[in-house]
């Protein structure tokens, strides 16, 4: 161990310092600049990444275009694409401990979470999507167009890779988001320019090394680092990028969407959320309390699907809210590398300011702080898990995404009111319903305007389940078979005979 990190991770940090992957070469930014990478558990500098420029974007996109047209990649059989993805998944699994540690140091999340969810989740997803490489299908079509007596037309459709993909990802699940973008792109034969968030570039860069080790031709995957407002914007506006796959805030997603639509490139957007957790009168209180607490406090509340609005039937309101608050107060907060930690720091001082600011706004809107409501008096970016009650449904803390460990709780009197409150949001990413009444659940689920509705669980994401948002939560569905639509074009071929 050195500096509290394993020697493997210390070596990786040294090797990756100030470098990014373009066209198979590891190099610094063309302007020579770097940006510090901060450990959120102590606020100290962990590493540095390149401060990439639009010139670097041009080079990465050109490398991805060359790779897309290179027969070594373009003519690779589906079986070989599947095999390569399995090799990448195997390499990731073989380095699971190192990746979990890197993710925790970079993002702050508890090592338990990165080693049990982030890394295995990325491996499982790569394995799942590898199987689709050999199952891309078109259809044969009977045409009605008249021709000679014994002649006709034979028509069929093909699925072809969309081309060069610009993938822009956030800091909350950096490795998993990288896998969600790289997996389907590589399964379908696309090439990628991946831009991780500035707060958390490390696991994406290390994954770039594994991509090379797995044997992908140079330029099939490029990992570039730099500021979103410079590099991300240049990538999303680049005329030779065929598709942008973006996960991040609704504000930036809207900007990206505009620039992409202007040039008619393809785009998928996975954006923000303000997901309701609805507890019906007959719910198992113990399960609902544990579920509601995990729904908001996992990953420090920095999850797009976080159950950040709790609506409880008035008859059970005090019991459930007190139960969630008691769990919050008991949570062990500390550095993610400490094995006892249940909640780590927020990702950055900026995020800490945002979360603390929202709780102050909540107080000014009349909210009572049932538990939490303070930053921790220690180095690093720590904030207490917080539960607010007593504000109106129209309050900003109820309507706006906080992206931190802050839960707002409100009572309801009947199912119609629960539906109205749950749907009273600009977002529509996910929701959960807690109840043992099958009829009530089946009546409620279709009425919730969200891309995923969980029943008696929350945050259950599986590679087989399509995932994405209604309303301002985004556009397109990742995972499941549905993701193939995002990374392929359908071509009709019509043959006269
Ligand atoms: P953003 O600020 O939107 O950043 C996301 C990514 O976009 C980062 O890589 C960022 O780069 C880049 N970016 C910033 N400005 C850009 C621009 N003008 N053009 C192109 N790219 C730009 O979000 P965040 O704060 O990192 O992440 C939190 C948000 O992501 C939350 O709203 C959350 O709900 C959402 N999220 C959604 C999902 C799904 S699946 N729906 C999953 C995770 C997170 P820099 O880091 O360099 O600024």
UniProtKB/TrEMBL annotation:
Keywords annotated in UniProt: Oxidoreductase
Oxidoreductase found in the keyword field: yes
One Pfam family, short name: Aldedh
The active site consists of: 270
| Cross-referenced PROSITE patterns | ALDEHYDE_DEHYDR_CYS, ALDEHYDE_DEHYDR_GLU
Q: Note whether Oxidoreductase occurs among the keywords.
A: yes
Aldehyde dehydrogenase domain mapped to chain residues? 26-493
Family as reported in the entry's similarity comment: Belongs to the aldehyde dehydrogenase family.
Source organism's superkingdom? Bacteria
Molecular function GO terms recorded = oxidoreductase activity, acting on the aldehyde or oxo group of donors, NAD or NADP as acceptor
Q: What is this protein called?
A: Aldehyde dehydrogenase family protein
